[in-house]
Amino acid sequence: MGRFAQRYDLIRHLVRRDFTLRYHASALGVLWSVLLPLTQLLILVFLFRRVLPLGIEAYPAFLFSALLPWAWLSTCLSSAGSLFLGNRDLVRRPGFAPPVLIVVNTLSNLLTYLVSLPILLGVLVFYDRPLTLALLAFPIVIAIQGVLTVGLGLMVATLNVFYRDVQHIVSVGLTLLFYLTPVFYDAKSVGGAYALVFRLNPIAVLIEQYRAIFFYGAAPAWSSLLASALAGIVVCGIGYGVYTRQRHDMIDVM
Question: How confident is the model at residue 226 (pLDDT cuts 50, 70, 90)?
C-alpha cells in the first residue's frame, strides 16, 4: 500500500510539473490549451459550413464534442516517441518505472481536455443541445480512452528508442486516422463496406460515444463501449508486453 501511495504521489507531481512547464514563460500561459482547439474548430467549421457544407445541424457543437477527445489522443501519441529518449536520466534510474512517463503524458494532456470542457458546454448550451444525465457516463469513456492511449503510447515510446522512424510513421498514421474517424462528419452517412472500418476502429467508436453524451444527450451504446474497453485492455497489455520484452535492450541503446 505504501508503494502504491508513493507511485501515486510521483505521478501527481510529474503531471503537475509537466502541465506547468508546458506553458512556462508563455504570455498567455494555460490559455494556449484553449486557443489551439478553438483555432482548429474555427478552421474546420469554416471549411465544412462555407466551402464544403455538410448540412449538419449545430455543426460547431457537433464538431467540438468530437474534436477535443481526438486532440487528446493525437497529442499524446505525437509526443510519445520522445518520452523515453527525452528522459534518459529517469529511465536509467534504478527503481523508476518508465511506463510512468506514458501515464503522466496521458494525464497531463487530459488536463488540457478538461480545461476546454467548460467551453464545450457553453457551445452546447448556445446551440440548445440537451445536457442530460448521460454526462455521468463521461468518466467511463475517459477511462477507456486513457487505457487505450497508454497502451499505444507505450508501444510508440519503446519502439522509437530502436527505430527513430516510428515517430514519423505515427505522424502519418494520425493524419490518416483523422479521416477514418468521424470527427468532422457523421459516421451514419458512411455506408457499405466502409462502415465496417468504423466498427473495427475503437477510436471511432469512442468518438461516437462522446458525441452521443454531449451532442445528442443520449446514453452511450454500452455494447460498443464494452468492445472498446476490451480493445483498450488488449492494446494496453500488448504495449506493456512490448516494453517488457525490450526493456533491458532499451537501457543499453540509450
Answer: very high
Q: Using DSSP, state whether 1 is helix, strand or coil.
A: coil
Supply the pTM of this predicted model.
0.90
Where is pLDDT greater, at 190 or 130?
130
- Give the burial string for 215-230 (b: 16+ CB within 10 Å, else e): beeeebeeebbeebbe
User: What is the phi/psi pair of residue 166, to 5°?
Assistant: -60, -45
Grid coordinates in use for 48?
465544412
d(CA 105, CA 99): 10
92 DSSP 8-state letter: H
Contact 185, 195 (CB under 8 A): no
Residue 71 one-letter amino acid: A
Residue spans of the domains in the chain: they are 31-253
Q: Nearest to residue 203, comparing CAs of 73, 84, 98? A: 73
C-alpha cell at 229: 474497453
Residue where the block lists cell 460498443: 224
Give how far the C-alpha of residue 163 lies from the chain's centroid of Cα atoms, to the nearest Å: 23
Distance CA 57, CA 200 (A): 27
